[in-house]
Design a protein that fits this description.
Blueprint lengths: L20 H7 E3 L1 H5 L4 E5 L6 H9 L5 H6 L6 H4 L4 H11 L3 E5 L10 E5 L7 E13 L4 E8 L7 E7 L5 E3 L42 E8 L4 E8 L2 E5 L3 E2 L3 E3 L13 H7 L7 E5 H12 L1 E5 L4 H13 L10 E3 L1
Length: 334
């Protein structure tokens, strides 16, 4: 999703200028037999900064086969799926990931375009309009609010209210609507009852605003690229992805879309509140995840060059007319 706003690469399909890659994938595919025969494809590593037409020119001897490079890898959107160069990755980090991530225990009903405002903890208990941010995205699984546009400062320990437009176009507190009005949230895992209160209370679950609260509390603040993307567990040479609601990275998953109050043993709760994680557990940041995914995408497969002309002719043949199934050998209608 982080690549969506980057500069587009535009191509045209030879012989069919109005056709886009997504149209090809909706109508044509390799036959099962073509895919099953290993000699039909080769694996290559995309050179730094190379585009699909560069790879086509290098392997097939002509840039006109750029579409075949994408077709062989089921890439319908070159802008988001093709591996990025180091300069593009750097631009992504400096421009599109330039912002803050706020982690909260509360399960919020917020979305892109909503406003988070610092709560005035003084006598009035209102909001401080000199400190606010526009929600760029909200990850409900990780309880992470990403903000790129902001005024003033919102930091760890600050309390926030969230506002969004309702169906009548009026601003309403997104936390109060559906959060705590009639809700009663467990104070610990396995609890059969709960405690309702209107603000964080040292006598209740730690660092938690639950039933009746009109605000959330920032437990952790990071830059967007330094925020957690996932947790992993290493045992010997094996590395597994972990549920953030796992206890100590080993057992007991308590996943649920709700307030995390009381889930003090989970990885996500410990991450937010600064508690040390087990040695076997690693935090994979957004930056690390993007670099890893991009490096993995650099390994692509290409249709054997001896079949390029045959496939090109069959695809064009299928897309230009009414062709009975079975007429072609390497590709077929979906």
């Amino acid at each position: 999703m982080y690549f969506e706003k980057m500069e587009n690469i535009n191509y045209s399909f030879p012989g069919l200028p109005d056709l886009e890659m997504v149209d090809i994938f909706r109508r044509v595919k390799f036959t099962d037999k073509t895919l099953e025969e290993a000699q039909n494809f080769v694996e290559v590593l995309v050179p730094e900064g190379s585009r699909p037409d560069d790879v086509a020119r290098s392997y097939y001897g002509s840039s006109k086969y750029w579409w075949l490079v994408l077709f062989s890898n089921s890439m319908s959107d070159v802008n988001s799926e093709w591996p990025k160069s180091q300069s593009q990755i750097k631009s992504l980090f400096n421009n599109y990931l330039n912002g803050d991530s706020y982690f909260v225990l509360e399960d919020l009903d917020i979305s892109e375009g909503d406003i988070v405002v610092k709560r005035d903890v003084g006598a009035t208990g209102g909001i401080d309009v000199d400190h606010f941010g526009v929600v760029d995205s909200y990850d409900r699984l990780l309880h992470r609010i990403n903000v790129k546009r902001k005024v003033g400062t919102i930091s760890e320990g600050h309390e926030i209210c969230a506002f969004g437009l309702d169906e009548q176009g009026q601003w309403t507190n997104q936390i109060t609507s559906g959060f705590g009005q009639t809700g009663c949230f467990r104070q610990n895992v396995g609890a059969t009852s709960c405690t309702a209160f209107t603000a964080p209370d040292s006598n209740a679950a730690p660092l938690c605003a639950t039933a009746g609260a009109t605000f959330a509390k920032i437990q952790k603040k990071t830059s967007i690229k330094e925020g957690v993307s996932r947790f992993s567990y290493k045992s010997g040479d094996r590395i597994d992805e972990l549920n953030p609601y796992t206890t100590d990275g080993l057992t007991h998953d308590y996943f649920q879309f709700r307030n995390m109050c009381g889930l003090t043993g989970t990885l996500l709760y410990k991450y937010m509140t600064g508690v040390s994680l087990p040695e076997e557990v690693s935090i994979i940041t957004v930056e690390e995840e993007l670099v890893y995914d991009n490096d993995r995408n650099k390994i692509i497969k290409l249709l054997n060059r001896t079949l390029a002309n045959l496939v090109a002719n069959e695809v064009e043949y299928l897309l230009k007319g009414n062709v009975p199934r079975g007429t072609t050998k390497l590709v077929t209608f979906i």
